[in-house]
Queue: 3 jobs
Job 1
Amino acid sequence: MNFTKKDIQQIEAKGLTLEQIKVQIGLFKAGLPFLNLKDAAIIGKGIQKLEAPEKEAYIQKFQERRNNISILKFVPASGAATRMFKFLFQFLAEYNPEKESINAYINKNKTKDLSVFLIGLEKLPFFEQVIHKVHKSVSNFNDLGYDLQRVEFVKTMLEETQLNLAFYPKGLLPFHRYKQNVSTAFEEHLFEAALYASSNNVANLHFTISEKHKHRFDEEFKFIEEDVEKRTNTKFNITFSYQKESTDTIAVTHKNEPFRDENNQLVFRPSGHGALIENLNGLNADIIFIKNIDNVVVKKYKNEVADYKMMLAGILLDVQEKAFYHIKQLDKNQLSESELLEITHFVSNRLNVSISNEFEKYSLKYQIKYLKEKLNRPIRVCGMVKNEGEPGGGPFWVKDESGTISLQIVESAQVDKDSRLQKEIMKNATHFNPVDLVCGTKNYLGESFDLTKFVDHKTAFISEKTKSGKNLKALELPGLWNGAMANWNTIFVEVPLRTFNPVKTVNDLLKPAHQLT
C-alpha cells in the first residue's frame, strides 16, 4: 500500500506513525475476532449481592479512610446533545401544518416520543427559557393555533439562529429545574462529588470534553463555583482533557483502501471512548470514580446514589488492602503451604481470576511468580443493575485464546450473533453495566500502573459510517470499560436500578429522577 509524502506528513501531524496506520489497515483486512462468551455473570456466579449490614460496613470502611487517601471523579463528558433531539429534528423536517394536524402526524407515524414530549413540555428544565425566547422572535406567538405554537417552540429550541440547544455539550444543557435555579449535568456532578468523591472537604473532578467547548465549561464553573462551594462546604478542583488526536484511527473503503476526502486527503475518525484510557492513564489518585456525564439525579435522590458509590469504594479498599498484603507475603518468598493456599483462594474467589489447571504442577518459585502477576494489576469494582430493557454492556465470563476465563463487560457488537450458543448465553444475562465504576490504579508500592499495558487490543471493533454521502469503515478502539480494562482485576456488585438515570433523549428529563415532584 503506497502512501505519498503528503500522506505521511498528515499521519505524523496527528502524532501517529506509518507503522501504526499499516497495523490498523491490517485489522480491517483480517477482521476482528468476536469475544468467546463462556457464561453470563449472574448473582452468586460473578456478581455479588450485598445485604444491608454488609453494605453499611463497606460504607463505613470508606468513610473511615476517605480523608487519608486521594480521590478523583472521572467524567467522560465530550458527548453533544444532538442525539437527544433526533425525533424532534425529524418532526421539523417532515411535518407540514398546512396538510395535517400534529395529532394526525403522531398517529400516522406512531411517533410516541413526540407525543410524550408535547404532553410533558412544561416540565422541561428549559421550558421557560424557550418560551421567553419564542415570544421575542415570534411577535404573534399568542395568536397562533396549538400546532403552530408547538412548531415554533421546537424551532426556537433547536435552530442555529435561536437557542441551538442540540449544539450544546450534554454536560452544559439545562437538566433540572429547582425553585431558585436551573442546573446543568455538570453542576449536578459537583454536588454529587461533594457527597462521595471528596477528601478533607476538597473534591477533585476531571472531565474529558471536546476542546471547542472548553471556554463554555470554564464560564459555567465561574458562574456556579461560589454557590456550590458554599452549599456543599467543599472546595472544587476541576481539570479537563481532550481525546488525543493520536488515538484517531484511519477510515477505509469497503475494499479496505484508505478512504480519502474531496481534497484527496486521508480521513481519520475519533476511535470511541476507549481512547480515554490515555486520559485516565495521566491521572494520579488512590481511588477514581468513573461515571458518565448524563447519569445524574435531582438533589433529593443524591444521598442514596452516594451511599452505593461509597459502598463500591469500600469494597475496592478492602480488596486492595488484602491484595497488597498478599503481594508483600509473596515478595518474602517464604510461604507456608496454608499461606499459599489462602492467597490462591483469594485470587480465585475474591478477584474472580481463573487459576490455571496446571498451577499445582508448577514449582513453588513459579507459583509465587504466577500469583504475584495475577495480583499486581489495577482493580475495578463495577456496579451492575438488573436488566429491564435498557441498552448497555453486560457482565459475562469470557474465554480468551489461551483458554483463560475472566469477567468482562461486553457490548453486543462484540458477540457473534450467528452463533446459537453465543446468542443463548447473551439471553441468560440478568444485569447490565450502567458505567458505575470505582478504580484502583496504583500498585502496592503506591506507584501508578501504566494502564495501556492492560488493554486487550483484539477487542477493538469495526463499524459502518458515512462521510459526504459515501460509506466507509471505521475502527473503534476497545471500549474504556470493555477491552481497555480487559486485563484488570474485576469485581461486579449489584446496585439498584434507581442509581442509573441516564439522559439519552430529551424525554428522559421528564422521568422522576430528573423532576422535583
Note: The chain has two domains: 5-9+16-81+169-316+428-514, 83-167.
Job 2
Amino acid sequence: MTNSSEFVVCGLDALGQYCVSALYKFQVKVTGIDLNPPTWQMPDMEHMFYRLIIGDYRYPSILQQAQVERCRSVLIVSHNERVNIEIAFAVRSLNPHARLVVRSSQENLNMLLGQELGNFTAFATDQLSAIAFALAASSKDMRGFFECDHQNLRVMQLCIPSTHPWSGRRLLHELHTWNRRILTHSTSTMPVTQTFNNWQSDTLVQAGDTLTWIEISDTELHRSSSQKTLSKPSPGQSFWYFCHPQFIGRGIQAIWNQVQQSQTQRVGLLSAGMMLGLLFIGTLLYKLYYPSLNFQDAINVSLVLAIGGYGDLFGQLQVPFPVPWWLRSFSITLSMAGTIFIGILYAILTEQLLSAKWSFLRRRKAVPHRDHVVVVGLGQIGQRVADVLINLRQTVVAMTEELMDDHNSKFVHMPLIVGTAKETLHQVNLSTAKGIVILTEDEVTNLEIGLMAHKINSQLNLVIGTFNPMFARNVDRLLPYATVLEVYQLTAEAFAAAAFGENVLNLFDLNDQTILITEYEIDDTDELNNWLLSDVGCGYGVVPILHGRKHQPSCILPSDDMRLQTGDRLIVLTTIDGLRRIEQGDRFHRQWVVHITHALNPTAVFEGGNAIARITGCGLEIARTVMASLPLTLDYPLYRPQAQRLVKALEKVQVLAECHSIHSES
C-alpha cells in the first residue's frame, strides 16, 4: 500500500540534498540512497532523513530496503542520466503506482518513458534555471517572463523613483487592475514579506518603495521557422502532403524568389529551358524522319548529341544511313548548345562550391558597442541561457574557451569569442554592456571573471552561476553587487513540487525565493473545489494567474470572484511554502470583518447585496437579509484583502462600511 508521507531520493549530491531540504518543509518522511557516503553541503542535513542507505540504487534489494514499494514518490536525481533511467524501471517494477520524478534532459525519451511508465515526469536542471540567469543579466526590473496559453506574462520589480508617475499619486489598489496584479510591496521601514497578497490596498505609493507585480506583456518571442511552414505530415499522409496545392505553391514561390535574387541562377534556368526545348525537338525530328526508331532510341540520339556526341554519330567519312542537310545542321546546333550548357553548369557548380567555402570562413557579426549581454561558458546551461536571451530579443555575445562543433551550427549569427575569458574579456565591450552571465564549470574561475568584470563596469548586471551551495553562500556575502544563483537550488523545489503530483510549468527567482508556476486540475475530491479564487490566493499565499473551464476560453489574471468547479484548470504563482500549505490544507485564518452602517438609497441596498454575495461567496439570500438589517457587522470572517475590497465595492454603490481586525474588536 502506498504511504502518502514517505518519499525516496536517489542521488545525494547537491541537487539531491536540496530536494531533501525542500521535502523536509512538508514534514514528510524522506529516505535517501547514494552509492557513497555523501559530503553534506548544507547544515543539519543528517537530521532531515527518516532513513539513509548507502548502496547501488539500481539494485532491487537496495530499493526494497528503502521500501519503495510503499512510498508515494521517488525522486531520481543522480548526475548520470543513464543510471537515472535504469533506476526508474527498477522502481516501477517494485511499485506500479509511485510518482517518478527523474533528472533527465532527453526530451523525446522523457515523453516516451512517460507513456510507458505512467505517473512519470522529468526535468532538465539547465532548462529550468536558464530563464532565471537570463533575466537577472538582461534586466534590473524584470524578474520573470513566461507564457500561459499563448499569452506572455512578466513579473516586474521596481524601486519607485521620485520622478515616477506613481510616486505620491497612486494608491496600491489603483494599480491592481485587469492586466496587472500587485504581488508584494515594501518600504525602507517595512521589509518585503515572504508571502503574496500581504499589502495594504489604501497605501499611497512613495518614492523609495519597492513594488513587485505581474502583468500581461505585449513582448513577443521569436518564432522558429518551423512554426511558419506547414506542419509535418504523418507517415500515412506524406504523399498527399507533398501534393497539397499550398505546398506546391510555396515551393514554386520559393524557387522563383531565389532565382530572382541571383543573376547566375537566372542564366542557368534560361539555359536549362532552352536545352529541354532542343532535346524535345530533336527527339521529335528523329522519330518523324526515321519511323523505324522507337521513342527510346530517338531520346538516346538527342541526349548523345546534347553531351557533345556529334562525332560519335557522324564522325565517319561515309555515314551508314541517309541524313538530310537540315537534320545534320540541327544536330550540330544541338551538340554545340549542349557543350555550352555543360560549361554553364560547371560554372554554377564551381560558384556554389566557392560560395560554400567562403561562407565557412566568413567572419561572425562584430561585437556590439553597447546594451548587450555577455554569456561566458557555452555548456548546456550557457547554451540554454543564450537561447532564452535571444528569444527575449537581447543582443548576445558568447565567450568560450573551446569551440565545439555544435557551437557553429547553433550560434552562427551570434558574435562568438574563443579563448580564455581572462585573455579575451577586453574584446566584448564590457564597459558598455548591459550584463554578463558567468557559467563556466570552474566556480573559482567564475568568481575571478566576476571580479574582473565588476572592475571594468561597476554598473553591470553581474550574474554568477555556481553548483556548490556553500560556495554560493560565501560568494553571495563577498559580492553584494552580484546576483549569485545556485543552479540546483533553483530547480530542487520544482522537483519537490512534482513529487506531490503537481505540474510545474516554469520557475523564476524573486526576493531570494524560487517562485513556481504550478498548474492544478480541480476534481471532486480536491479541497479547492467550490472555492473563490480570492479564498485560494489569500488562504494559501498564492496568486492565481490563469483560470480555465471546459468548453470555455481560459482567462488570464482572472477575477478574484471566480468560483472553482470540478474540471477547472488553475495556474498559480507559489513559493514552496504556499505549495506545502495547499498540500496539507494549512490555510491562513480569516481575521477581518466588515461593519456595514447604512445604505443611502434603495438602489444601494440592492447593489450592496450583490457586492456582498459576489465578494464573500455567501448566498444571495443571506446578503439580502444583511442589507435589510443594517447597521450590523457581517458575521462572515474574511481575509484582509477581501474585507478591504468589499468596503470599496460597497462605497461605489453608496453603502457606508468599514473593516477591522477581529483581534482589535476583542
Note: Residues 221-242 have pLDDT under 50 and may be disordered.
Job 3
Amino acid sequence: MPVRQLPEQIVNRIAAGEVVERPASAVKELVENAIDAGASRIDIFTEGGGRRRIAITDDGGGMTQGDLALAVERHATSKLDDEDLLRIRTLGFRGEALPSIGGVARLAITTRHASEPHAWALHVDAGVKSAIAPAALAKGTRVEVSDLFHATPARLKFLKTDRTEAEAIREVVRRLAMARPDIAFSLAGEERAPVTWAAALPGAPGRLTRLGDILGSDFRASAIEVRAEREGVSVEGFAAAPSLTRANALGQYLFVNGRPVRDKLILGAVRAAYADYLPRDRHPVVALFVTLDSQEVDANVHPAKTEVRFRNAGLVRALIVHALKEGLAREGRRTAANTDGAAIMAFRRGDLPRGGWDWRSSPQAPAASTAFSSAAAPTYAAPGFAEAAQAAFDTGAPSADIRANDSPAGDLLDRPLGAARAQIHETYIVAQTRDGLVVVDQHAAHERIVYERLKDSLARNGVQRQLLLIPDIVEMDEATVEKLVARACELEQYGLVIESFGPGAVAVRETPSLLGKANAAALLRDLAEHMAEWDEALPLERRLMHVAATMACHGSVRAGRILKPEEMNALLREMEATPNSGQCNHGRPTYVELKLADIEKLFGRR
C-alpha cells in the first residue's frame, strides 16, 4: 500500500482520539482555555453526561474575528510567545483542542473582544467550518458542544452511563477550581444539583476556603498548612491531620504551576511523610501546589497534559516530604477526638424506659465500692447515651481511683493533658484538665513515646544494646529464618542482634535497652511478617522505621497493667514532651479530649 497524506478531517478525528477521550476531556480543554483567557467567572452546563450538550461561558478577554477564524485550525494557538516549548506558562498550548472537538462533534463558538463593536460566531460540524457571522454577546466567550462523537459513533460504545460521565466532569471541574480559587465557578446539569464556588480571597486563607468548599468541612477543620522552599522550587498547600483518612489515594491532589496533574511522585512522597501516623491501609487527604520555573518542568509529555516530568524530581519529592513532615510535627497532638467532635457524636440519644432505668435493680448492677459510697447513686441514665455507650460504664469496681487523694495541683490542671484522676479497665487513663477531661490509651501512648526514643537514639549515637546472658533461641520455619538473617544488618542498627542457629532457628544475642525484658519470639515473628511486604524499592530508612515501630509496640506499657497515680502522671508528661504524640505509630489516636462545654451539652446543662 503506498504512502499517502491523510485528509484534514481524518487527522482531526485521530487527534480527537488522543485529546478528547470522553466528555470530561472536552470540558477540561474548554475550561482551561477560559482560564488562559483571563476569566474571573466560568459557568459550565452539561446534558446527557456531556455527550448531548456541553456549554461553557466565561467573561475573559474573548477573540477578534481574525483570531476566531484561526482558533479552529490545527496547531493554532495564542498561548506561545515563541517556539520555545520549555517555557510553558499557560494551561493550553498545543492548539489541538478546538479542531479536535469540532472534528467529532457540533461546535459553536461565540466570542467578543474588547476592541470589536460586536461579537462573532462560528460553527464547526464534524470538521466542516461555517462562515463567521455577527452575533450578540456582552463579553468573553461562549462555547457549545453538542452531539459529541456523532462523527465517530464507535466511540460512543466506550462511554459509561450519563451519571458516570457527569461525575467525571465534576471531578475535572473540581480540580481546576482547586487550582484557581481566585476564579468563580458554577457547574449545573440535569444529572446533578447546581453548585457554585465563589471567588476566594488571595493567599492561604482563600485557598483553604476553596478547598473546604470542595473537599468538605471535615477537611477544613483538620487542615494543616504546609510550606517549604529551596533552590527556586516552592511547595505549599494543606494536608489533613492523620485523623482524616480515606480508603484510597484519590483524595491526594497535586498542582504544578497551577496545572492539575496526576503523578506517582506525590503518592510515594505522601506515603513516606505519613508513614509514622497512619495504618498501611489508610491514605491521607492533601492538596499540594508546586511552583517552579517553567524550564524545570516538562508539561508536554502527555496529549491530555495530565502528567509532567521534573528536571530534578528528587528535589521536588524531598520538598514535599519535608513540608508535610514539618506541618504534621507542628500539629502533632491533633487527633480525631479533639478536631472533629467524633467522640461527642458517639454519644447518641437513645430510647429509655418510661420513668427511667434504675441501674441498681439491673442484674448486671455492680456492687458499690467504698470509694464511691459517698456519691449519690443515679436513678436513670442521662439522655444522650446510647445503649452501647452506656454499657461501657458497667465496669464493676474501679481498678484505680485517685479521688480519695487530695485535689490535683492547679499547675497540673493547666497542662495540655491535665492531671491523672483514674485508671479504668487497666487500659485507659482518665485525666482532668481545667476545662474538660482526657481519656488516654496507655499502650498506644507509650508506644509512640518508645518509638520516638528509638528514632532519636538512632539519630544521635545509635541504639544502646543489652547483652543477653543466655541467648534466646526462637524456632521458625526455614524461609522465615532466611528472611530475618538476610536483614540482620538492618536489625542490628536498632540494637537487635540475631544470628542463624541451625536450619529452623534464630539466636537472639542482644536487644535494645529501651525495650527492657522483651519477648524475643513474638518480636521476631512480627518483624518477619512486616518484612514479607518489603521490596527492594523501599528505602532503607523506611525499613528501619518499620523495625522501630514493631519494637516500640513490644516495648510499651501493655493494656491490663495497673498503674500507680505517679506513673500515670509521668506518662502524661512524657506525652506532652513527645512529638507526634496524638497518634501511635499504627495511626490510632492515643487520647480523646472532651471539653466541659460539650459534656454539659450531653447532659442538657447547655
Note: The chain has three domains: 8-197, 204-330, 408-606.
